[in-house]
């Protein structure tokens, strides 16, 4: 049997150096924008939630931040999620997507959802979106990318399939 060397970590112990930061803490210059595009399936991995947390952090750094949901990403903006009833959290973290989008929008972030993905792929109506999410024409996905390019904005694009 292998012998364990060292003391067991206990709750509250630091096991890495979380104080050392290697890069400057960049804040947005006035008028700077960020566009985050997400084409990801909710709850199929952590990327959707991690990207929403990243959107919120970018927004808090002062960027005028837009989150564009398309393809399966539109499902993250579903206002009809919950079990056994809409809005009920079946287990801790079950409503994390809805809650994080709510926080992001409450702090000034804009969320857009592609109407094509909503209707053609998932049968979602505009009334099925979380309040404050803006439905958009499918051609606007590309035009948002081109707008970001013209504005010199920060662009992040995430795809999962």
Question: How would you briefly describe this protein structure?
Answer:
The chain is an alpha/beta fold and 161 residues long. The protein is 29% helix and 17% strand.
Q: What is the tally of helical segments?
A: 4
The secondary-structure class comes to alpha/beta
Distance between the termini: 43 Å
Given as residue ranges, the uncertain stretches (5+ residues, pLDDT < 50) are: none
CATH-derived architecture: 3-Layer(aba) Sandwich
InterPro entries: DsrEFH-like (IPR027396), MSMEG0572 (IPR023847)
Protein name: MSMEG_0572/Sll0783 family nitrogen starvation response protein
Organism: Pseudonocardia hispaniensis
How would you characterize this protein structure?
The chain has 161 residues and is an alpha/beta fold. The protein has a single domain (34-159), classed as 3-Layer(aba) Sandwich (Hypothetical Protein Ychn, Chain: A), CATH 3.40.1260.10. Helices cover 29% and strands 17% of the residues. It is built from four helices and five strands. It has helices at residues 47-60, 96-106, 115-122, 139-151, and strands at 33-39, 64-69, 110-114, 134-136, 154-159. A five-stranded parallel beta sheet has the order 4-3-2-1-5, sandwiched between helices. Helix 1 (47-60) runs parallel beside helix 2. The chain is globular.
């Amino acid at each position: 049997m292998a012998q364990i060397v060292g003391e067991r970590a206990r709750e509250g112990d630091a096991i890495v150096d979380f104080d050392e930061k290697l890069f400057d803490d960049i804040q947005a210059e006035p008028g700077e924008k960020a566009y985050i595009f997400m084409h990801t399936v909710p709850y199929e991995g952590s990327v959707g939630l991690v990207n929403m947390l990243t959107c919120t952090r970018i927004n808090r750094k002062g960027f005028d931040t837009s989150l564009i949901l398309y393809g399966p990403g539109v499902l993250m903006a579903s206002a009809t999620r919950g079990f056994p009833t809409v809005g009920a959290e079946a287990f801790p973290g079950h409503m994390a997507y809805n809650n994080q989008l709510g926080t992001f929008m409450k702090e000034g972030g804009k969320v857009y959802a592609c109407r094509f993905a909503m209707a053609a792929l998932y049968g979602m109506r505009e009334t099925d979106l979380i309040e404050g999410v803006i439905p958009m024409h499918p051609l606007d996905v590309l035009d948002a990318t081109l707008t970001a390019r013209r504005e010199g904005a920060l662009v992040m694009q995430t795809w999962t399939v």
